[in-house]
Specification:
Length: 142
């Protein structure tokens, strides 16, 4: 059996999953639904054990992270302005507007030109929304 160095998986497995993407996606979706408690327990444990490592990684690379943040603020002044105005003037609500969750609530700006118009989403729905927006965004072919 020949291994694929890129994905560290036997080549025949990779080909199988390429041919049966939808079947595998549905299987994993059902698995996550039926094993939700086990997955949440695993994720909680994983985050707790790796929090220290993550903090150490940040401390080792602090200047790099600070520089990245500075560049982002320079390149996205409208987003940063909207973020600051919303933080100052709009208190965070208690529940997600999409799923009703009360944990990890964040602000989402649909339009940065209207900084006080925000949606309150849990971090999971916020991430899903941004991933959907990336997929739907038109590709500039300049």
């Amino acid at each position: 059996m020949k291994d694929c160095y890129k994905e560290k998986r036997p080549i025949y497995d990779r080909r199988y999953y390429q041919k049966h993407k939808e079947k595998h996606r549905n299987f994993m979706k059902n698995y996550r639904i039926t094993h939700k408690d086990e997955i949440e327990k695993y994720d909680t444990n994983y985050r707790a054990t790796h929090r220290k490592e993550k903090k150490q990684h940040y401390e080792r690379n602090k200047t790099k992270f600070v520089e990245q943040n500075r560049k982002w603020r320079e390149n996205h002044p409208d987003a940063r302005n909207a973020e600051q105005l919303a933080q100052r003037h709009i208190p965070i609500q208690n529940e997600c507007e999409m799923c009703g969750s009360t944990q990890n609530i964040e602000r989402h700006h649909p339009d940065y030109s209207q900084p006080l118009k925000v949606m309150f989403l849990c971090s999971r729905c916020h991430r899903k929304l941004h991933n959907r927006l990336k997929v739907e965004a038109p590709i500039n072919a300049n």
